Amino acid sequence: GGGGGGGGAVEAAAEEVSPPLDTAHYNVLLSCLSRPRRWKEALELSARMGERGVQRDTSTYNALISVMKAAGKWKLALKLLRRMRSEGVPPDTITFSAAMAACARGGEWRSALLLMGSMRQAGVRPNTVTFSAAISACEKGGEWARALRLLRQMGDEQVPPDLITFNAAIGACAKGGEWERAMSLLTEAMPAEGITPDSVSYNAAITAHANAQPARPDGALSLLRAMEGEGGAPPDNFSYNGVISAFGRAGRWEEAVALLRQLAAGKVAHGGEALSPDLVSYTAAISACAEAGRAAEAAALLEELRSSGLPLSILPFSKAIAAAAKAGEWRVACATLRQVSSLQLRHNALTTNLVLRACDAAGEPAAALSALLPLLRESAAAGVASPADEETLELVPHLLLRAAEAAEVAEAAEGAEGGVWSAEDAAQLRRALGRVEAQTAAAAARRAAKIKR
């Protein structure tokens, strides 16, 4: 069961038998609380050990830190490690590996590397799991050079790398677009260690080609074809999405859409089952169209996505709006923004600003302001953050000035196509923007406080 109080219930049941619970019993109970949502119960159980004078040992802390790792509570994992040492309980390889893995999950590569140093000072020898955790932390932080340094260190210390180690190292190279290094690991280092790459290995290498400057779609595609070949690691959606993304970043939108079509045709098999496009596939293809300013194609793909029954997010709509903005299609940008509202998706400042700039570039300031005001009203009514930021606050005075000029002209003519912006509308907008100003000031204060810490 996963409900609250589970740790206490297990403990109470165990106490019905005698003799009283000792350290070993509590360690078994703690290992039963390894699910992410049960970290509070684990801490309560540890506290009761202290209250009852039951000694906490290395296994106790290893179980506790492992629970924190599973829950993504890296700060608590480090706090437990400090408490453990202050109590004179010796940490072992498992302790440090679990704490480093917790840091990896939180993207805290610096903390993970500091732990590696502490481990050596404590006379504890790192093993494959330890190094893999440190390399994974560097991967999350995009620190590919440090990840490769750790991999070399493993060789120097004769610690054998495994599949997880290599996948983390290739993933780190992928983050930095270091495709040559990723390929060297995949095609040279892994075979030299007798390790067969899996789908994760190939997908990371595909991502390295996609993230390269400039993007290398042909390299990504050749890896995909190798996966499709006899005896290759079976490709999955991540594989195809990576190649679609690579084509998009290289400005080759037609090939990106063609690969999406290949997925949609259901001809691609994975483990005996046909693959089909997911939300990321469509988003990558729409993004490819956006890069090339192909507004009509992006809009068509967005409509196809909406009809597919797949779960939606704001991202494909943002990409379609970007495509419309790039093509000067301000009406399409505004209509797509209205779709986001009608589908009750969460707006964001990036999308809002894209629409405002598209309308401004087309000489339609009233249309921009008319698109913005309902978004500010809706977010205020829902009690959520406004989809606006500092850039919005800079754009609005300029748009208001242009709209006022257009309104003066409209008195003697038919007015701008996007409509006329009245003084009453402007007053409403200024009131709504007060909330945005407070929101951005609070966000800036939080950022400053974080930097100080």
What does this structure look like?
By secondary structure, the chain is an all-alpha fold. The protein contains 23 helices and two strands. Strands 1-2 form a two-stranded antiparallel ribbon. Helix 16 (279-291) packs parallel to helix 18 (314-326), helix 18 (314-326) packs parallel to helix 20 (349-361) and helix 20 (349-361) packs antiparallel against helix 21. It starts with 5 loop residues before the first helix and ends with a helix. The model is unreliable at 1-5 (pLDDT under 50).
Task: Label this structure with key terms.
453 residues; mainly alpha; two-stranded antiparallel ribbon; globular
- Sheet-strand content, in percent, reads under 5%
Radius of gyration over all CA atoms, rounded: 28 Å
Find the count of extended strands (DSSP E, 2+ residues).
2
- Separation of the first and last Cα atoms: 39 Å
Instruction: Give the helix/strand class.
Output: mainly alpha
Question: What proportion of the residues is helical, as a percent range?
Answer: over 70%
Described by the principal axes of the CA atoms, the overall outline is: globular
* H/E topology pattern: HHHHHHHHHHHHHHHEEHHHHHHHH
